[in-house]
Specification:
This protein is mainly beta. Helices cover about 15% and strands about 40% of the residues. A hairpin with a 2-residue loop joins strand 1 and strand 2 (about 70-75).
Length: about 270
């Protein structure tokens, strides 16, 4: 009798192991089948969270107009990807008015502009930037000065644009000003500079409708629309003048800008 019971226990144990093995096989088949299904719907992004981010370096956010911001430091791999900027005003207590959101796409490497709601570019704003859904480190540079230098090819490097002289002409008209700017850098190796010129700077005698290159070696990279506030023109140095387009520690580049209230200019003409 004891031997028969032992045999029965062995048989039951073997049967349970067989059932468990079959169950594991079926579960594995279901997982494999599910893995082959296409990812659709709202939950698809959670499955795609392992996608590689295109932006690692920090970006800088400045005002491009009264309804748009400029993002500097965007990497080339992010061109065409969704770009979202949210600016928070810590001084505002109302949640409805605390932030402004700017959405678009990274349309160009290094610098791109995204539009949103009207806002005042105060110095204390706090940015939050996502590129292709990934949060990236960002800083807000506050209201833009008359000239500002960046190194778009290397966001980790820096340069400085310094206004060394500005005068308002009495000839041919009293509505013309000249500005001399020196571009410099503390980098031990050459860096390619780019300068944003803010024609809306309140320190200027008037809002110029025309901007002319008094140096002869400037290339326009971008310009805001004539109705934008601020009105910004971005320039680089020509590569045809040797190392004029680059600066480094101990080597600078000098540029001259002319603003006119009337007429036309080679860098910008507004009606």
């Amino acid at each position: 009798m004891t031997r028969r019971r032992a045999v029965r226990r062995i048989a039951v144990t073997l049967s349970g192991a067989a059932v468990l093995a079959v169950t594991l096989v079926l579960l594995a088949a279901q997982v494999a089948s599910a893995a082959g299904l296409p990812l659709t719907g709202a939950g698809a992004r959670a499955w795609a969270a392992t996608a590689q981010r295109c932006q690692e370096a920090p970006v800088t956010v400045t005002a491009a107009s009264g309804t748009a911001v400029r993002v500097t430091g965007v990497q080339a791999a992010c061109v065409g990807r969704p770009l979202v900027v949210t600016l928070y005003d810590p001084a505002v207590t109302s949640s409805a008015a605390q932030s402004r959101r700017f959405t678009g796409q990274a349309t160009a490497a290094a610098t791109t502009t995204v539009a949103g709601g009207a806002f005042t570019p105060a110095a204390a704003l706090v940015p939050r930037v996502t590129v292709d859904g990934w949060l990236v480190p960002s800083t807000w540079s506050g209201p833009q000065p008359f000239v500002r230098c960046t190194v778009p090819d290397d966001p980790a490097a820096s340069c400085t644009a310094t206004l060394v002289n500005r005068q308002q002409w009495g000839y041919p008209t009293p509505t013309t000003w000249l500005a001399n700017v020196v571009v410099s850098s503390t980098s031990p190796t050459p860096v390619t500079w780019q300068v944003d010129v803010d024609l809306s700077d309140p320190e200027l005698p008037f809002l110029a409708r025309a901007l002319t290159d008094g140096t002869g070696g400037l290339v326009r990279v971008a310009a805001s629309a004539c109705g934008d506030a601020p009105r910004v023109v971005t320039v680089r140095g020509t590569t045809a003048w040797g190392s004029f387009h680059q600066v480094q520690d101990g080597r600078t580049s000098s540029i001259q800008l002319r603003g006119d209230l009337t007429g036309s200019g080679g860098l910008l003409t507004c009606p």
